[in-house]
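Possible regression after last week's pipeline update?

I re-ran a chain I had predicted before the update to compare outputs. Posting the input and the new output here so someone can diff against the archived version. Not blocking, just want to make sure nothing changed silently.
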Amino acid sequence: MNAFSHTGNAPTNATQAKDRLYTQLSGSLSRMARAIAHTADLCEQMETDLHAMRTFAGLDAAKFMTVATNLHPEDDEVSDEESRT
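New output (post-update):
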């Protein structure tokens, strides 16, 4: 007679525990895969936003320089005259 209490193909406590742990692992891996996909989407959006910010900063700087030049055109003329002497 067998010293173990299981008979035939009935799952043991160890088998049930293993199956439960594999199910938990599967759920954790699924959640992690979704989180990684979400992170990738956020990174792509951030890349788009950074590009837009670079474009905006470049245009804003160009506008600022244009306005500054138009506000003080005599400063450029004075510096040109000083450099000739």
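Follow-up from reviewer: compared with the archived run. The longest helix spans residues 13-71. Marking as no regression found.
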